[in-house]
Amino acid sequence: MRAGLTLLFILMMMIFPVNAAVDNIDLGVTKQFNFTVTQPGWAVVSVYLNDITPNSEQTVVLDSFSGTYRVDIKSIVEYNGLWLRFIVNVTLPNGTVVTGEKGVLFSRPDYDVKIQYNWIELDAPIVDVDIIVAFNPVKIDVVDTSPYFPTYLNWDEGYSFVPFYHVTGVSTSDMRVKLWIADQEGINVLNNGSILDKIKQQLSDAGKRASEWTWEQILKAISKIPVVGENFATALEVMGRIVGETFFFVRLILIENWELTVLTYESFAMMYAMQSRNIMTMYRRFVGFHVETVKLLFVIIVELINLLMRLIQAVGSLIPFT
What we know:
alpha+beta, 10 strands, flat, disordered N terminus
């Protein structure tokens, strides 16, 4: 435990220069707030509105040294409570209005708004929906962090933090308001990204290069085995491509476009159940459709794992020859 805390302290010391400072201010649960920075050299860099009940509206006005920004958010529950749609308007100092609209399955009790989300506060994959807004350049996104379809907030920010000296907000529903403030050095640290992110990226790039080199070398070495080498290497390459493409489509359908997949699936389930006019039979058919789907997915996952294990075993069994 102490070793972990020591490592965390060392990493924090690495991330923040001695003169840099970033702090947060909790304004509690409220329907409106008005905050002005009083510390010389400091500014508001992030505004978080948390635990907001859907079917509500929020407006946040942010005064910067170059002009006023405005964020208007409207959440609408649709389709008998199955769908939650967000409409976000960002008004820039020059009067330009940028609009973003996106919907998610309404299976979460509330949502959060992250204006200029920063990497200091890690957002765990809990049952939640986050609206991400940035200004330089303008970025509007709705991130579903449901544990059933986890989308971790490891996306590349790709924007610079605009400092604000005055922030106000109002909501038709209660919201837990949290502000992040920083001095100039702290803003520079936020804009440059954390050292942890840089290390993670370097390790990821190195791992990718290592895996590509290893697979290429394995295939070349196996092809040198007398008589069957070239054919076996070709078979492994085909098998590897099948595994790769299969996992690609699984990710594309079940993770990256899961909302559309779920809606399509539930439509088929309802059509299957409504083939009967008896309400109890409809219920049994609807539940049975889901049970059989779970069984099918389990079989597919097991077979994919077995295919992957067979590929690993096949390569491993040939290591002595290489």
